[in-house]
Amino acid sequence: MVWQYILLQTLIALLPIGAMLLWLTKPERLRHIPVAIVAASGVSLLLGMLSRYPLHSESIINFRLIPYIIGSLYGGIPGASLLTVLYMVSRLLQVSTTFSIALLGLFFLLIVPYLFTRIQRFQAADRAGRLRIGFCGFLATSIPFVVAAIHDANTGDSGFWYWMYIVIFGLGSAAIILFSIQTLELSIDRIKLQVELQEVSSNYRKEVKRLQEFIDISPLVAIFIDGQGRITQLNEMALKLLSPYDRSGVLHRPYWSVLNMFGSETLFDSITKVMKGAERESEVVRFRNRLFYTAVCAWRDEAKQETGAVLIAHDMTELQQLKDEVDKMERLSLVGQMAASITHEIRNPMAVIRGFIQLLNERSPNEHHSYFHIILQELDRANNIINDFLSLAQNRIVEKNTRKLNEVLEDLMPLISADANMRGQMIELRIEEDIQPLELNVKEIKQLILNLARNGMEAMTDKGILRIELKNIEDGVQLKVRDTGIGIPPEKLERLFEPFFTTKTNGTGLGLALCLSIVERHHGKIQVESKTGEGTTFIVSFNKYKAGQLTAGA
After folding, report:
1. Which residues are listed as membrane-spanning (predicted)?
2. Looking at the whole model, is its pTM more than 0.85?
3. Pick from 479, 486, 480, 484: nearest CA to 504
4. pLDDT reported for residue 483
């Protein structure tokens, strides 16, 4: 009967621990531990008091203080206060002697304040410190029970088995308190570890996502290759470059089966060298009419002891185009300097030569007039070249007036149409209504349109069609001159605006350079689209926001 009672008291005393093990199954419940422990300890305390020791009416051998101590230490001052009130009220309903009331007063006046002073220290301590404080709390709360046992011994109300049960009660209480604290601490540490693991996993996923987003938005092409030569990761720029492949069609495939579209053996050699131990290899690759600077770097997976490579490619097309534009500007600058320095020196003797040729022509026989005519034509041609030099000269100030581009074009149409009729060609004119006005130098714009129109007519045979289009665009006006000629080969297209570069047999190579200079002085852009056998289109875009300025020649 007694052993069953002790077993029942043990189970009741362990109730808070069992309840907490069931409660602490989710990390989000960690912050509610004080409330849960106080509630479970209160229930355990009441159940312990309701089960009485069968051999003693005052229930000296009782584990009711175990949940009180555990609940007070973990519940904080509010929880300890609530459990103290519950304990005192329950005990007042049970005591029946003056001595028992005195012991309860001793407990309330001495033991409870001592326990309250240890609560804050308990919550700030580590596991070992909490075990010490819990054991000291047990010793302090055991004082009334020791006094009661001595009183029973003096009154003769005790025997051998009674003292045996007292010893079992004391050792059992200490063991249960230490076991409870140790179990709770392990459970709390496990939950905290889960919380930390979740935070680390969440931060890891965030960092991986952030890194992937950074790689995806990066203007660089990035392709990761493992030690077996398989592609393990790539970014959005790489997918665009490797179109029509999609991500599933690229991942885990050998890099040589995917990158063979680059057609660069040296790129494969660079990857192979890095895979064999080289730190870095780089080269310049041309792919789909674009220029890429590629760098292959090594990376090592320390966990798997594998070495892989990462291919990084930077699109240098725009940078190369900018460099080409700078080269063109330098050539134009050189031409301008030449024109400024030698033009007047050449024109004066040429004027004298032309005058004497005309005089000799008047005095020579008629059969020689054709020769003098050829000489005069060549002199005029040389003079036109000098005029082109002057047009390309830098530091020219051009005055602009507000005009509509369609009005300038309509003034030129009789001259362009007459030129086309002489060649047996047709002119198609498409002008959008209500063309917005621009700030233009009319003389230069006429020269620009005439040069582009005559270039198109010279590129066509008879029955060719020259289309001239004029329309408004978002930030200005666009002029298109399209011919149906033989087109321009791609290798010549890039050098089209270079001074002295020409595709004509008798050309000087200054016409399109002059056009570029005029367009830049008007803060516009000129582009060329051409297909061999289909024709060429010159697209000139004028920006309306750059109006009203006196501008130096570009």
Report:
1. 5-24, 30-53, 65-89, 95-117, 129-150, 162-181
2. no
3. 486
4. 93
